[in-house]
């Protein structure tokens, strides 16, 4: 049994979406981790994330699979990445990963909901995710702004420390998955669902 589980495996084991408090906690931890990577240079940050590439550790930490180690993430790519535009700066690279991050967490709150059932989010979180999934990079929010929004929310609410939540989510996977069959390598559900999410988002923007 591996040290890490993917975010996709967490949702598969649970069989239902993340709740809003869990999203705020994970979004804060993920943004902090990505900013730390970004500070080391744009070449160190992968511009595409997905539920199958985010790794949660039993010790409460986060990591990310390298870009070359997973597939079926086209729907999580920012429009400029799909069009083949390289990241010309650290800011451009961050904007690309912000889009993927927004799509990833929207997938987490939309997970296995019937297509005609709306996603129930506060206007605060929904507005943040929509700003992260803005098709035009110049209008898309950046990592620092996401971090500031998360920190502000955490100061005004009583949420679990991210490390404790991550440990709990990993424990859920181990407890509920007797054979611990990885779902991250089977990207069909990730891809199909994210196409639906794109339609939902575009109906809101």
Automatic annotation (TrEMBL):
<dbReference type="InterPro" id="IPR052074">
    <property type="entry name" value="NonRcpt_TyrProt_Phosphatase"/>
</dbReference>
<dbReference type="Pfam" id="PF16474">
    <property type="entry name" value="KIND"/>
</dbReference>
<keyword id="KW-0677">Repeat</keyword>
<protein>
    <recommendedName>
        <fullName>KIND domain-containing protein</fullName>
    </recommendedName>
</protein>
<feature type="domain" description="KIND">
    <location>
        <begin position="5"/>
        <end position="190"/>
    </location>
</feature>
<dbReference type="InterPro" id="IPR011019">
    <property type="entry name" value="KIND_dom"/>
</dbReference>
<dbReference type="InterPro" id="IPR011009">
    <property type="entry name" value="Kinase-like_dom_sf"/>
</dbReference>
